[in-house]
Amino acid sequence: MRSRTIAVLTAMLVLIGATGSSAETVSLRDVAQRTWDSFDAMTDTDSGLPADVLNADGTTSVQTSTTNIGAYMWSAVTAQRLGFISKHELVTRLSRTLTTLEHMERYRDTGQYYNWYDHRDGSKLTYWPPSPNDEFHPILSSVDNGWLAVGLHIVQRSVPALERRAGALYKAMNFGFYYVPDRNRVLFHYRPDDPAASPCCYDTVVSESRIVDYIGIARGQLPQKEYYGRWRSFPDDCGWNWQETKPIGTTRTYFGVPVFEGAYPYNGTLVTPSWGGSMFEALMPDLFVPEESWAPNSWGVNHPVTVQAQIHHGMVDAGYGVWGFSPSNTPEGGYGGYGVDAIGMDPNGSTSNEDHTTVDHGFAGCGRDPQPDPPPTAYTNGVVTPHAAFLGLRYAPEATLADVNALADRFPDMYGKWGFRDSVNVQTGTVSGSYLSLDQGMIMAAVGNALAGDVLRKAFAGPDIERGLRPVIGIEQFGASGSP
Question: How many CB atoms lie within 10 A of CB 196?
Fold first, then answer.
């Protein structure tokens, strides 16, 4: 798969898109350069922290998150590897970021950061800007701290001048803090002001939150069995017949934990589903961990069919002519949890469009008959986000390059000096007025890995991570390994 990807990228690197004029073309390298320029524009020159949101007019949000900070750090490492900044500039930039992190408030001795800070000075937010009177509770997010840890570990292993400082912050982060033994899972987040209100737990394995499992297990902070405490799909019995698709699978036992290896039939394949059917749930951790080679019978099977499901939905089921569905800006304003409903477990549907067009394949033998699939004409106001397409670059390079080409060509405001805007309504042509640092960070990681020999995977998933993690995830066989 990797050699094929490199060959395709080499052949197709010249032209991947237009910006509204047939005379102007861009390359993957240009995408990376412009995406890095967006980070430069959104990052405070004193604190070294990126804003959560960069608006098209150059203004930014006040807030940033720990995930955003991690994304900035791995994007800076990528930018240096691609020659956009010098080693000296990389060290200067990230030294500033680390200095701020070293002084930001953390929770007691856990090494865990709060979720939201003022990106201008690193102070913990106690209200949500710009609404100081709205109720707001500072929390510690397990997954957001996980992405910060990814960024820190990448800096530790790839920037020698900052190895000690980044390593100290990474080492101090205790992910065992979130473990709930009687659920064998980790908390969504912890509320210091009301611990009893801390919600439990991350339930699904096809989730970006599994990065917490990976780090915690590799470092010995979480038991190996914790990885198998999550659902692959929900069960196939009538007590779970509210699912829109009845899963197919079998139960296997790993580390003493029985696991129902369920998968959803879709377009002639079996897909182990995520909650929302989105691309980032399935593939964000794969940017940093070589899941398809460390776990060939689980992730190695599921990632390609997930990407193909996204393509099929956009091009066939919904007939958008483009694809890529993942949480993103709603182009007209706000934020939405977009996905492919048919490969998601959310009974309310995380759909690909603003008008919430859902599917219901029924639950055979449990009193729920299947409903006809909606026709493409039902999928009005579809929302496509470029970062979802770029996440598919490793597994469907030709389709990814064609997709971003179509996005840039059909929607002239989509691609500009800061790369791709966050989303577009493919029916009206309305383009988001913003760039999100998280989504820009996923684009930078995907393109950087493609152009620079898996620079971020090699930096993060070194011998320490592989030794602790590969024996745990490598033994699993997803239900998606079969065919319906």
Answer: 5
pLDDT in tens, 218-237: 999 999 999 999 999 999 99
Tell which residue, 286, 174, 271, has the closest CA to residue 222.
Answer: 174
Partners of 420 in the β-ladder: 415
In angstroms, rounded to a whole number, what is the distance separating the alpha carbons of residues 460 and 101? 19
- The per-residue pLDDT for range 92-146, each reduced to its tens digit, is 999 999 999 999 999 999 999 999 999 999 999 999 998 888 889 999 999 999 9
How far is 405 from 425, CA to CA, in rounded Å? Answer: 16
Helices 66-81, 28-42: axis angle to 10 degrees equals: 130
Closest-CA residue to 309 (of 351, 276, 266): 266
Q: Is the pLDDT of residue 25 over 60?
A: no
CA distances from 458 to 134, 309, 466, 471 (A): 43, 28, 11, 18
Residue 443, amino acid: I
Contact 388, 279 (CB under 8 A): yes
C-alpha–C-alpha distance, residues 98 and 102, integer Å: 6
The bridge status of strand 269-271 relative to strand 257-266 is antiparallel
Three-class DSSP category at 406: helix
260 token code pair? 């129902």
CATH number for the domain formed by residue range(s) 2-481: 1.50.10.140
* Residue 41 tokens, joined: 């524009």
DSSP 189: E
Question: Which has the closest alpha carbon to 478: 306, 226, 286?
Answer: 306
Q: 306: number of CA atoms within 13 Å, CB side?
A: 37
Percent of the chain with pLDDT over 90: 91
pTM, rounded to two decimals: 0.95
pLDDT of res. 3: 44
